[in-house]
Amino acid sequence: MAENRFSKYVLYAIGEIVLVVIGILIAVQINNKNIKNQRSDLERSILIEILDNLEDDLVQIEDELYSDKVVMHADSIVIAHIRSKASFQDSIAAYLRISEMFPHLDSKESGYSLLESKGIDLIRNDSLRIRITNFYNRDYPYFRKYEKERVDIVQTIIKPYLTKNFYLESYSEWPYTKRVPFSYDNYLNDPELISVLQTSSSLSNIMHEKGEFLEKKAHLLIQHINHYLNRK
User: Which residues form a coiled coil (predicted)?
Assistant: First the structure.
C-alpha cells in the first residue's frame, strides 16, 4: 500500500512538473511572439518615417534640379550678352547675382537615425536593408561631396570675383538683389568673367547630373519600401 501511495505521489509530482514546463513553454512562446510583433511594428513605423523623410527630400532635390537649370541659363545669358557687346540691363545684373547661388539640400534623416539606434538588422528583408544603408551611407555622401565642391568654388572664386568687380543693389524681382559692374568696359572685356561664369555653369551641370542620380535612387528606395510594406 505504501508503495502504491508513493507511486501515485511520483506520478502526481511528474504531472505537476510537466504542467509547469508546458506553462513555461507557452509563456516563452507568447513572449517571443509579442517580441516579434513589437519588432515588426517598430520596423513598420520606422520604414514609414523613412518614407516621409524621402518624400520631403524629393521635393528639395527637385528644387535643386530646377535651381541648377536656372544657374546654367543665367550664366549662358550673361556670356551671350558680354559677347554681343549690348548695353547693360537690370535683368543681366540679376542673372549675375544668380551665378552665386549654391545648393543647400537639407536632407531629413530622422527615420534612418532611429533605425541605426534600434539596430539595422531590424529590417528583415536583406535587399531592402542593404538599399537603405547604401542610400544613406553612400548615395547622400556622394552627392554632398559635389555639393561641397560647388559651395567651395562659389565662396573662393565666383563670389570674390563678383564682389571685387560688381556692387550689390536691390532688385524688385527674384533674386531681389543684382550685381552692377563698377566698370562697364571691364565687364565687357575681362576674359576672367567669362571663365568664372563657365565654371559656375559647369559645376551646376555636374550638380544637376548628380541630383538626377540621387533622385532616381530615392524613387527606387521609396518603391522598394512600399512594396515591402504592402506585402507584410
Answer: 25-64
